[in-house]
Design goal:
single chain, elongated, Integral membrane protein, transmembrane helix, transmembrane, membrane
Amino acid sequence: MKGPRIAWILARHELRLLVSLVLWGARRTHGVRGGRAFGYAQGQAAVMFGLAFVCVVETVVMSVLLRGRPTVHAVVLLLDVYTVVIVVALHAASVVRPHVLDAGALRIRRATHVDLRIPRERIASVRRETRMTHEQADGELHVDVGSRTSVTVHLTEPVTHVTFFGRRREVRVVRFHADDPDGLIRALATGERAGGRPGEHTAQA
């Protein structure tokens, strides 16, 4: 992949993070529409805010150390503040971009990094399965939060996952985390639609 392409992807990613920060402040979500949202950010909130706090402390310390060098201080301060904003925006992106279940598909997301849409008719089974370690395997996608997944979905046929840098791979097993895994599994198992009515497709719990 060429340099300009990578730069564009990274710039687009940061823009999406900043947009997510605005949506978070406005208490809005992205891409839910008439579907049912299932969050996953609670499992990482403490870590993300702890990291943001560390960055703030570092910003204060560097400001003290560099107070005699105004030019360097201004540059470092700008970088440090931007780092804090990006860390908070990463958490915001996880909050405003939840998993979404609608009448046609289950959409699995993680911040702005993962966005996989699984048609309901391709879901063979779904079960609660808590895992803290994940070995890479062909045909599997692990969308972990804090190194943990809590739901495993097996598919009747593969779906295409597009990675952060645009590589395409086929997956038949998807493991991901949800704050309410039981609620998500029940909704899939009963074929629940966005409005709460039984749908056409079912999954095995």
